[in-house]
Task: structure prediction
Amino acid sequence: MEEPILAVQELTKTYTMGERSLTVLHAATFALAAGETCAIVGPSGSGKSTLLGLCAGLDLPTSGKVHCAGVEWAALTEERRARVRGAKLGFVFQSFQLIPTLTALENVMVPLELLGQGAQPERALELLGHVGLQERASHYPQQLSGGEQQRVALARAFIHRPAILFADEPTGNLDTDTGARVIDLLFELNAEHRTTLVLVTHDADLAGRTQRRIQLRAGRIEG
Result:
């Protein structure tokens, strides 16, 4: 049987503030197969973004383990975790996080530059074309609408063919129609690249498009 691309075991996260402690995630356990799509849903404050960050190695748990894309995060140094994230993971956040001094094309190529693979403008242009922005390749982020910026961020997330894409409220800063277009593109690119997709969302319609749904309430997985 094929190993899961993401395996979470008894994952707990507790924050300590002086003499007080707050546990925001309690013993979460689940696994995803390669190519699977999954939505993490729940009310505000239920631990969704905390769980996503732990799965992606952006933070480490208080207890429990995460095996992601062939590695266990806690067994690696922060430098090594950063290298694995850069090589194997893609990210799309609510805030677009484009570099303002780079053009759309240059922003898309950033992951390749960080991996030492050099600029690949033809592939970047192809991805910008897929999201309908090839003619805007030379524009800077401030010259683009919010929806256009998020579409650039989508192209950037797929440029290095990640094994897993993590998306945290990817339509949170967009109007309904623009958000729907971005989500259509997200699923199109995901299917084309056969990437595992893990997304945090409040949007029930968006969650309904994924194969799996992980429901969180007060830091615990329900069901």
Q: What stands out?
A: The chain is about 35% helix and 30% strand. The mean pLDDT is 93. The first strand starts at residue 6 and ends at 17. The first helix runs from residue 48 to 55.
